[in-house]
Amino acid sequence: MIAGAREYRREHPDEARYTDSAATASIDRGLLGTGDDVPAGPLSIRVRIAIAADGVDDARLRELVKWAREHSPVDDAISRAVPVSVEIDTAPVERRRQAP
Fold this sequence. Notes:
The protein is α+β, with helices and mostly antiparallel strands. Helix content is 30%, strand content 19%. The protein has helices at residues 2-11, 58-70, 73-79; strands spanning 17-26, 44-52.
């Protein structure tokens, strides 16, 4: 989302300035292997963005953050279920096929 805000700022340099952000995640130690019933990833994610612009009202700043979320590949991947495929190549390095 932050990358999206930066892109918007490049396109609209006089409109807004990004001032601060913070992201927090609720992790229940599943990544430490504490139990098969505990997910390895976060249980929730919260993002806080502080943004300001001279002469721009609150509604327009909220529109900017909404635009950034809509154009953020990270926000998109986290917000919806994205299929993940894993390929494992155990051949010795010298025998691996070169990528085209």
